[in-house]
Design a protein that fits this description.
About 45% of the residues lie in helices and about 15% in strands. With about 400 residues, the protein is an alpha/beta fold. The strands form 3 sheets. A 5-stranded parallel β-sheet has the order 2-3-4-1-5, sandwiched between helices. Strands 8-9-10-11 form a 4-stranded mixed β-sheet, with helices on both faces. A two-stranded antiparallel sheet has the order 6-7. α1 packs across α2 and α4 packs across α5.
């Protein structure tokens, strides 16, 4: 097991400091949230209890375990204690119960620290926004990076580009059909059926799944929602498709990047550029094998761009950055990264792709902090996928 960056954040900065906020771990499915907690518990000196709400139906369950924890503290003269609740989103109206118990402890000076996590990012965030404002801090986890997959499994760059960053699927890459089935049925399908469908009023579930699969297959490509409708069997209108894409983005599956512009209206009206959060999603729904993919210069160029986009998308969310693309007529820049009022332009070029003047045109028009070429004639792909994106703005 490797220690992800969130490990030190949880261990040193959050659980060992005085009780101010409950801690909430969020992130996509299958990125190691539960493993992170287990590793942390091996190092802390605070008494703790872990409760899982996986099969809980009783609304009073949270109040019951909370009272049990208080009694443990009282009977054992514990000055502090840690309560960990996994799959908390499965408790009906969980946020209201958590708010009540947390506020009671605060009022009565009970030093019971709380750590919440769950498999449904959307359900967790929905509950937090409804009742718990000002009472929690988020610890965001992302898809695994190239550095992490290399350290954990010895992957080379091409393997990571194709198979992406799901550690649970890593041992299956020698059996492509089994790997695809795992990504689809154990990651993508639960993310849609348990995260998206349970949090929103989706009138056309079949349409949502079609939008997801097409969004994966079109990663790095620009396609209007109107044209996308023409490829769907259960078509809706463009507004419905846009709303579904927003939900898929919030679930860390696939996003529709908007065009960079200083005019907010133009951003909202732009044609989306589809981008997966993890290249495993692109290739799980692709018919091209790894061996064929790496031998196709044009197709592999899109794989490389998608891998860079996935890294940028996940890291941007982690670091509170924004990610765009830019295009005017025949000139374009693959990605525009924005942070604290400044922008960085990023163009991705792999072997065999022709150069464009888009980066120069954008630089002259918008004066970014930096203009970066990722590829053989610029920053190497391996270097960029290891980069702390904050350094781009120094």
């Amino acid at each position: 097991m490797i220690e992800r960056t969130e490990y030190e954040q949880l261990l040193q900065s959050r659980l060992n400091e005085p009780r101010h906020f409950m801690q909430v771990i969020i992130g996509p499915r299958q990125v190691g949230k539960t493993t992170l907690v287990r590793m942390t518990l091996e190092k802390i000196n605070i008494p703790y209890s872990i409760h899982t709400a996986d099969t809980v139906k009783d609304k009073g369950w949270l109040s019951m375990i909370w009272q049990q924890e208080r009694l443990e503290m009282q009977y054992n003269n514990q000055p502090e204690r840690l309560l960990i609740i996994d799959e908390v989103q499965k408790v009906p109206n969980w946020s209201e119960f958590v708010k009540k118990e947390w506020d009671d402890d605060t009022w009565n000076n009970v030093n019971l620290k709380v750590l919440l996590l769950g498999s449904s990012r959307l359900l967790i965030m929905s509950g937090l926004s409804e009742s718990l404002a000002g009472r929690y801090e988020l610890i965001k986890m992302t898809h695994w990076t190239y550095s992490e997959m290399q350290e954990a499994f010895g992957w080379d760059l091409n393997t990571y580009i194709y198979y992406g960053g799901y550690p649970g699927a890593a041992h299956l890459i020698g059996q492509p059909s089994r790997w695809r089935a795992y990504v689809k049925t154990s990651i993508a399908e639960p993310s849609i059926t348990k995260d998206v469908l349970e949090t929103s009023n989706i009138y056309k579930p079949a349409l949502l799944k079609q939008v997801f699969e097409l969004g994966c297959s079109y990663s790095t490509k620009l396609l209007s929602y109107t044209k996308l409708i023409g490829q769907l069997q259960d078509a809706g209108n463009a507004t419905t498709i846009a709303a579904y894409m927003q939900l898929l983005s919030e679930a860390n599956l696939v996003a529709g990047l908007q065009k960079y512009s200083k005019d907010e209206a133009r951003k909202r009206q732009s044609i989306p550029k589809f981008q997966v959060f993890n290249n495993a999603l692109l290739n799980a729904y692709s018919r091209s094998s790894f061996d064929k993919a790496v031998c196709d210069p044009v197709g592999w160029g899109k794989q490389v761009e998608s891998a860079v986009g996935a890294y940028l998308l996940s890291q941007a969310e982690l670091l509170d950055m924004q990610l765009w693309y830019w295009r005017e007529k025949n000139e374009e820049v693959d990605f525009i990264l924005e942070w604290d009022g400044e922008i960085v332009a990023i163009e991705v070029k792999s072997n065999g792709e022709r150069m464009t003047t888009g980066l120069t045109t954008f630089k002259n028009a918008y004066h970014p902090k930096q203009s970066i070429l990722v590829g053989p004639e610029g920053v190497s792909l391996e270097t960029f996928l290891r980069l702390d994106l904050r350094k781009l703005f120094e």
